[in-house]
Structure formats: C-alpha cells, structure tokens
Design goal:
The chain is mainly α. It is built from 12 helices and 5 strands.
C-alpha cells in the first residue's frame, strides 16, 4: 500500500515538504481536490485570481506548474512517476487512492456506510473512526478558497458529518451511550439545526436514565427550529420524543455486540439487528413488505431490490421486526 504523500484534509501537507509560495500551494491544492481529473486552465485561473486575473495569467500558471513539478521531485526524489501532467484543456494531478488523504477517507467512509446497511455496527464504528482520524482541520484551511475549492469544501464537510453521524449511530447500537454524552452535547451545540445529533443525544441521555434532560434537548431543538426557520422538528425527532415520554423499554435497551440480537421476537432462533428507533417513513413499502411476509408459505422468497445505499437492509430489518410473530421458528440476518 502506498503511503500518504498529500494531505488536504486540513492545511496542505506534502511528504517531504509543501511549497511555501501561496500561489503554488493554491495550484497544487486545487489539482489535488480534483485528483486524477483534468482541471481546465480557466478553472485554475478563476481559483487563483477570482476578482481580476492578470493578462498574463495563463503564462504565469504554466510557470507555477513548472515550479511545482520541480518542488515535488525535490520533496520526493525516489518517486518515479510524474505527478502533475499536462492534459488539454489544463492539468491533472495523478495520485493513487492511498497517496491522498481525502480519497483514503472517502474509501473508508463508503465501507463504513456499507457495513451500516449490513447491520455490522462494530465494523461501522471502526471504519468511520479511522476515516475521521484522517482529518486535521477544514479542507485546505491554509489556502484561500475560490469557487472550486469552496464547493469541494462544502462537499467534503458534508461527507465528514455523515461519517460522524454513522459512527455515533453505530456506537449507540454498541451500548456506548455513556461515553457519547459529552461529545453529543458538543455536536448539538456545533450543529444547532442538525436534528440527527440532537436525536442521538436524546437517545444517549435516555439510556443513561436522564429522561428529563433528553426531553429538554428536544425542547431546545424545537425552539431553535421554530425561532430560526419557522418549522417543527421532523418525524424522527417527534417519534423519539413520544417514545421517551412513554418510557419505552426497547429504546432504553442498547444491544451491544457486532450483531445485536432482537429480544422481542416470538421464540425460535432469532438474530437480527435491534429495532432502529430512528426509522421513519416508507409506510407504503413497509405495509406491502409486511403483508408479503405474513402471507409467505414455506419455501417462498420475498426479495427487496434497489440501488446500493438505498436502505434495503434497513427496510427489510424493520419489516422483519413488524412481522416477527408470524415466524415462531425465528428470524436471522445473514
């Protein structure tokens, strides 16, 4: 496996030393954000001189690329491939997935998301922790952002937040609610409009026996959403509030282990991920799937199809829990 040569998840880092000149760093950072893709000369000029590019901008850019090539060869003289290539209508940074921290992050995050769909919460937590550990700060935080870098920063920040959400979700399934409470308080304060972190905090507090505090989190969330946006919390948050008000025993019981075992099924050999209190919506699909399961005869197969990441496993697990009483022999996720 190749070692990381370039870091963009934070200030720009280059193995052997990043160039000191601001414009050179800007060119390299922009090319790395679009690694293995051609970035046009016009896009690079817009990034370097967003207000008023000089008449000699294209020529100056050629000089910058030449200096960068020399700097990269000096920083890593044993690297036998040219990193910056000229490709019409611009330039391309050629790197392998493991040479660039952002592609390594996205690869780990994708694997973590797949593990979440499969209900393997221990793998989710491990993969997303490793992905998040690659971040050292905001994307290219030491380089001024033009339109291309600004868009990339928003996209990568959203991917980072999604990985964080999935890591927390998995750790709640693994029974780590007490350890998560301090971090979730910080996340709820940092992301006052992100309902998922407030929902996770509500669950964590409730499982710690702090029902009143969990309800206060919902009240603060509702106040913020109504005051700033004029909207009510979404279905997931409202459902959680009702479960907490009712003292729901299933919500209070985390199910540790990489493959949580459902305790509510009727007899038999049952091994399913526990019911997810955050699962809402898809009412028609659930009703149809539950009806098919209840009407199935011995040997019948009910298939759920869809694109990767569409939530097929989550839908199937929810339907299995709802139809559990029709399968006294047990239920199992394979």
């Amino acid at each position: 496996m190749d070692a990381v040569r370039f870091g963009i998840l934070g200030p720009l880092e280059v193995s052997g030393g990043a160039p000191a000149a601001a414009k050179l760093r800007g060119v390299l950072g922009t090319l790395l954000v679009r690694a293995n893709e051609v970035v046009s000369v016009d896009a690079l000029i817009d990034e370097l001189w967003p207000e008023s590019p000089p008449r000699t901008a294209a020529t100056t850019l050629q000089v910058y690329v030449s200096h960068l090539r020399k700097a990269l060869r000096t920083a890593d003289p044993h690297h036998d491939r040219e990193t910056l290539l000229t490709r019409r209508p611009g330039y391309l940074a050629r790197v392998t997935p493991q040479e660039l921290d952002s592609t390594a992050f996205l690869g780990l995050a994708r694997r973590g998301h797949q593990a979440l769909n499969e209900g393997d919460f221990a793998a989710v937590a491990d993969l997303q922790r490793r992905a998040l550990a690659l971040w050292r700060g905001p994307l290219l935080s030491d380089i001024p952002h033009g339109p291309l870098l600004e868009g990339a920063a928003v996209r990568m920040d959203e991917a980072r937040t999604t990985a964080l959400d999935e890591r927390v979700r998995a750790e709640l399934h693994l029974g780590m609610h007490r350890e998560l409470v301090p971090e979730l308080h910080e996340l709820a304060a940092k992301f006052p409009l992100r309902e998922e972190f407030h929902a996770h905090l509500m669950v964590a507090l409730y499982r710690c026996g702090r029902q009143a505090e969990a309800l206060r989190v919902f009240a603060r969330l509702r106040h913020t959403l109504v005051d700033e946006l004029g909207i009510e919390p979404g279905p997931r948050s409202r459902r959680l509030q009702q479960l907490i008000l009712a003292g729901d025993p299933d919500l209070a019981r985390p199910e540790p282990g990489p493959r949580p075992v459902a305790v509510g099924a009727v007899g038999g050999d049952t091994a399913l991920p526990g019911p997810d209190p955050s699962f809402v919506g898809r009412t028609e699909e659930l009703a149809a799937l539950e009806a098919l399961l209840r009407g199935a005869q011995a040997g019948d197969v009910v298939a759920v199809t869809g694109l990767p990441g569409a939530g097929k496993t989550a839908l199937a697990v929810e339907a299995a829990h709802r139809a559990a009483d029709a399968f006294p022999g047990g239920l199992r996720l394979l």
